[in-house]
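Course assignment 3, question 2. Fill in each field.
Student: A.L.
Task: Predict the tertiary structure for the chain below.
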Amino acid sequence: MTLTQGAMNDAEIHAAAAKLRQRIAEPPEIFLVLGSGLGGVADAVEDPIEIPFTEIAGLPDATVKGHAGRFVSGYLEGRPVLVQSGRYHAYEGHPYEVVVAPLRIAHRVGADTFIVTNAAGGIRQGMTPGDIVAISDHLNLHFASPLRGPVRDGEVRFPDMTEAYDASLRAHAVRVAEEIGTPISEGVYASLGGPAYETPAEIRMLRTLGADLVGMSTVPSVTVARTRGMRVLGFSLVTNVAAGLGEGVLDHAEVMEEGRKGGTVLGELIRRIVARWDEVGGAS
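Answer field:
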């Protein structure tokens, strides 16, 4: 069975985790997911072991341009990590259970912290391409949840989402960014199903609802991470001004190009954050 034919049940998640565990050198402390054009962060991983998605229990390949479709296991600043370079999206036709399957597998192999990045449109006034924003909260506008159905092993029926993004991790990120001279702000991320970019009217609606950023990912995996008790640190890289707030039309190639430009800076910030992980309770 491939994941495009149905969701992985608990036994299949466990089997996939066991297969991945055989390929990696050490159970990861941190699971990182990289968004459009941001795959370069994986290049900083030391002693890397690359595992294509398709080699793990029938996971489908990534199909969106700018998403590599591989796991990278290794070390970042001496800490064991598992990187998901490229992600699945519901707009590709995958069920939401498929979108979050790598997160469930990563948790099963040992990751207790989730660092997620995405490319996003900037809604808040003054945002420009290249801005890095630590996600403080989100709006789930997919109108669907990967938690529907039977309660999964290791999950709870009604996870509390009051602090979906860990405040202490976010404060640590802001502190490190200030010290290395990388300006970042905090903001609310709105996630829609896509794949069409939003209309100007939708952007006005999102601004009224309190959104600072908009994209098409992240929220389903964060929801599952929280129901599994994982700490979450999220970053949006602003790759474009949202529809109706700037000139011209939105183009995915331009999003990827801005992702590559800003990804270098964001990757260095993540590396510095992980280098000082002990300050936020990381294991020594």
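Instructor remarks: The radius of gyration is 18 Å. Residues 127 and 150 are 41 Å apart (CA to CA).
Grade: pending
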